[in-house]
Amino acid sequence: MQCCCPWLLPLFGVTVLVALLSEEVMGQSCVWYGECGLTGQGEKHYNCEYKGPPKPLSREGYDILQEFCPGLFYGNVSLCCDVQQLITLQNNLQLPLQFLSRCPSCFYNFQNLLCELTCSPHQVQFLNITETEPYTDPVTKENKTSIKALQYYIGERFTNAMYNACRDVEAPSSNERVLGILCGKDVKDCNATNWIEFLFSKNNGMSPFPITPIFSDVPIYKMNPMNNATKGCNESVEDGSPCSCQDCPLVCGPKPQPPPPPVPWTIFGLDAMLVIMWISYMAFLILFFGIVIAAWCYRKRHFVSEYAPIDSTLAYSVNSGTNTGEASCCDRLGEKFEAWLSHVFSRWGSFCVRNPVLIICFTLIFIAACCTGLMHMTLTTDPVELWSSPSSKARKEKEYFDSHFGPFFRTEQIFVTVPNGSCHMYKPYPSGGLITFGPPLNKDILHQVLDLQNAIENITAFYKNESVMLKDICLAPLAPYNKNCTIISVLNYFQNSYTVLEHVNRGRFFIYDDYHSHFLYCVRSPTSLNDTTTLHDPCLGTFGGPIFPWLALGGYEGDNYSNATALVITFPVNNYHNDTEKLNKILAWEKEFISFLKNYNNPNLSLSFSSERSIEDEINRESNGDVSTVVISYAVMFFYISIALGHIRSCRRLLVDSKISLGIAGILIVLSSVACSLGIFSYAGVPLTLIVIEVIPFLVLAVGVDNIFIIVQTLQRDERLQGETLEHQIGRVLGEVAPSIFLSSFSETVAFFLGALSSMPAVRTFSLFAGMAVLIDFLLQITCFVSLLGWDARRQERNRLDILCCVKLQDSGSGVSQGSKSCLFLFFKKLYAPLLLKEWMRPIVVSVFVGVLSFSIAVVNKVEIGLDQSLSMPRDSYVLNYLQSMAKYLHTGPPVYFVVEEGHDYLSSEGQNMVCGGMGCDNNSLVQQIYTAAELDNYTKIAYPSSSWIDDYFDWVQPLSTCCRVYNTTEQFCNASVVSPLCVHCRPSTTEGKKKPQGEEFMRFLPMFLSDNPTPKCGKGGHAAYGTAVNLINSSSNIGATYFMTYHTVLKTSSDFIGAMKKAQSITENITETMNIKEAHSHVFPYSIFYVFYEQYLTIVDDTVFNLCLSLGAVFVVTTILLGFDFWSTVIMCITISMILINMFGVMWLWGISLNAVSLVNLVMSCGIAVEFCSHVTRAFTVSTKGSRVERAEQALANMGSSVFSGITLTKFGGIVVLAFSKSQIFQIFYFRMYLAMVLLGATHGLMFLPVFLSYIGPSVNTAKVQAAQARNKGTERERLLHF
User: Fold this and answer.
1) What is the Cα–Cα distance from 833 to 16, expressed in whole angstroms?
2) Which candidate, 446, 402, 401, places its Cα nearest to that of 421?
3) Going by DSSP bridges, is the β-strand pair 606-610/410-417 parallel, antiparallel, or unpaired?
4) pLDDT, tens digit, for every residue of 991-1026?
5) pLDDT of amino acid 320
6) Where are the alpha helices (H) located in 526-683, listed in sequence order?
7) What is the pTM of this model?
């Protein structure tokens, strides 16, 4: 069937085509074209209203369009914008480009938003003009219409997608989210809609007229919202890479979770160590008392005396008349060695008494020769030298950092509070809730603080008649272009200017913006060069760097910076380790700085402050202040020694029998041994430390005085044999006691010298000086003191007065020694020793001491590690207030640098991706791993992602940016602020040019980046932020060491500092391992200023165990040999010394004494003191030939106990008590408390537990010694004296 109207079909087709063309033409229609008059500020242009089809773009604009709006570069390129509008768009995109382009999909969406607004041929669909004004072109005289306001209809889907793609993008140089700069609000308050509203607000300083965004996904008011396709942050653009993990959590996967904290070791809900030791102690008591009761019953059944040894009913002694059994080889060897030692010392003692002048002259010559070395003495007060070994890891890393980037700057810091101030409220215009501003953020207070800051800048010090001001020594990162000092202060938000602080935009009825609004913007965007308020003031400091609010404010909660209750002002000052002249200038200025602040008086401000030199100054002041306390302490000990040595037989003979002069001589010998030790090591170039000066005299006095008392009191108790001369008597006495003195002194000397193997400088230095001092003290005592003792004995025999030896007392009887015994000796012999060794008393003693030991073992792992810095300060120190303010107000910790050592390949794509954190970088790159660590800040102690010079460099060098430009004639760098047609982009806008530079191209532009100062047109200039972060080598042809900086979280206690260092080291170990999977030449380490001081605490437990075990091992070996290879006696003595050391840890826990280098030195010293308390009693027990262990223990305690008690315990106790009145906290804690503990524990263990312990399990009597004594004394008067 044919159609009756064949012409209708073509007609219908034409109609449809016309309709489609009409719809297309209607869709492709503009609302503006070109630029018209200037805005009210005269800086920006309005757009010209234009209702018509889009116009073809001039070819001059093709490059710009292709670079910034490639989605519109198609067909005949007909748009609703001309070339000038494209140039304006290009300029407006520069700031977002520098920050958002590191995430390509984010910048792609952002470009879409502005390109569609500016040039879309479909503007009429989503733009609605709401306000215009007539305009006459001054050139063509053509009448036009300027657009003053319009509405922009945007799809909600597009809005949310753009926000989601951009919300996590980081600014590498400031560790802040980019939206904190581009949103006009805190990042936490920024969302999709208010971000776009801010972008199009006239108040942001960028938009020439207000643009009102209307968000909808459906047509509204006959408008079709712009709802272009978007890219998610995990999607790539133009076959590139998606955003990095740092800028897009979707790429990272789930957020890492920190490992759970270690579960406390408990049993039945109680501390496991306490439970275990309690059960062990109960088991010991049951077993011990079972054995004691069984032995008691056995003795009762067999009628054995309570003094019989538990293991035998038989006993024999030198007095028994018969000798049972043959002596073993060890017994005979021990007896021969003992006899040889006694013979040698007897002969030597007699020689010294016969030739006193010769001995004393040689002694004086030796002392003088050694003391001459004191002229070469150097005192080390540098904390680094004191606490860090030159071979330690942290020390080497510090030296590496200093040599490549310069020493860490010196810090002068002030906390400013307003004690009588109050908060005030601020209400932003035109809307917003009330915002609380803390007391120090009152404008009047800020003016006063600025006065203070300016006064500090004007402080003038003098060094060698040369004036020194802050500007001469301060850190100026942009010098010589910008010589302003770095001052980290909230006032640098106002460029340290009274005028800027007073800047206000005031209306008739309202204040639109003032310092409040500028402050609120700057704490969100500290790197901004132009705030978005109507003030348009910069936030960047005058020195060219940002002021991060967490560094300049304190005492706020969360990130409510306006609530701050304290201002923090920091003056970083250059540091010089190898230039004494420059360093002395800085020290001179710091001294004036401290003096100025001490005398500063403002009733409205309260200051707490510190300088780099403050701690060292205060420690020195404390040491000087405690001189009087130490002098009184030693004076008390000297007075006691001088008086206690004499044994007064009658009041008439008081001045004859006293031994004040001999006591003074003995003290001088002790001090001379210390001086000789200092002199010898000064010759060797070993520097002296304050610990050596404070501790070693105490140690040597304990050892030396004990030896003096043993020699003198043994002579006083001895009766001269018939026909025996004085020299032979003293020689015989010395033969009896010198082996014991030699045992203790030589054990201590070897133990201390082996302690010098420690890696801790403080312990090593102490051990060297202490070992030498104890050795020289022993040598002087068996030479010079023995000669002086002979002189004094002759004086006493001739009845001459002490001190006034020329005066002779008449008719005072014979002065020949008759073997008189002191009251203390009689007390020990008649009362104390028998009571202590009673059968019922001994189990009680053992039970108590084992109980104390069990408690100490239970708490030994609970002793704190570290040293609270405040303890090293005097109680009246201004630094204490500063340390309290740090703990109270600071919101960030010390800076930490992740250093990549020289050798990493930055020129290859693979090497770059290992470290960078932007697009295309490895998900486990250096920057990304630090970012991940910052996400777990409570665990890792890393507060923020690191600044990244390489990421900012990639943003700076990209071809779309105006940052990297060169003169096309000279190839020299052209700063972004320069307006010249000769300046061209460094890299072409080609596919290849948009990639990361590599090889020679990378190195060609890097020096330009590092020398470029940030400007409003290019905020990525690297001079201020990274001028010292990259070490260029080989004439800037390659890269050496570099660093990536961030901050630790707030660190308050020693455990915080130690934990932060351990976590940072763990992070860098993982980074190094990750990098070396691909490349074998990379090494990364963390560096912070405190690491070199706290590294010792990483190994302090191992060092403590090593040093104490080494000391005990030395004591064991030496004692075994000098006791005549009496192995079992040595074991018992070492067990007792170990108990003393373990109990020292119990006292440390109870008394709040932490484990550090100072306490470790004291523990090493306590090992020496313990030897002194135990060795004499042990040796007296081994040489005793009494029949039973109890009798031998009683004899040893009676003979040696009184000398040990009077020589060490009483001597030290008086001096220690004086230390309790010291003003120094460190003296009270580490000297008074620890010295008191070591003396009391040593005395109780040596004079109570050890005799009891020996009475139970001491070695059997040496058969060879018994036989030798019987043979030697048979039929002589001496045999009678052997009866106790």
Assistant:
1) 127
2) 446
3) antiparallel
4) 787 788 999 999 999 999 999 888 877 878 888 889
5) 42
6) 549-552, 580-598, 614-625, 627-644, 654-657, 660-683
7) 0.82
